Description:
By secondary structure, the chain is an all-alpha fold.
Amino acid sequence: MSTLDELKHVWATGAPGPAGGQRVEPAQLLAITKARGARQVNRAMHYFWASLMLQLIVYGLLSHVFIRFWGGLGVQALCLGGALLYLPFTIVLLRQFKRIARASPARRAGGASLRAGIQQQYDGLRAFYRFKRGYEYLLIPLSTALGVWLVFRLYVPGGVPQHPTGALLTYLLALLASGWAIQRENRLHFEQPLRQLQDLLAEFSH
């Protein structure tokens, strides 16, 4: 068992320290707490970077189609609508994750300030997760419909009007795939880290 694992065991059980009953220093316990908090926040930050890159790609594709079909008011209106649909999500994503990054446990020195930092990260992550779950009920169906329409408009002769069955099947399959991916994403990057951070905060009150 590593020293870090031994210290975790000491903290959790109150057993003697790793060196034959040697007292565990507060600095060691703070280091453990920082590591545990940072590990959970890093899982959420992985989502942040992946989501930000995906949204930049979406904005880039919509801009490309907007310019390519210059003068086609219908296509351009849909491209603008798609960008406006994603914009609130992007703004909230940047604000909340900036707040989470500023409250990094690595910047906290004492126990009280460390707990405050973890609490801020927990609150920021929970607030964004609540917004995400609610907004995606609007974002995913509309953006999927927009994507299907544009794909059929650009690459399928006749577009959606002449291929309604194919467009509907494509839409439903894309919606199911998105739902599965989002459910897995929420569990991995939000529900599990939030549960671990909540457990960590509870240990401060023991």
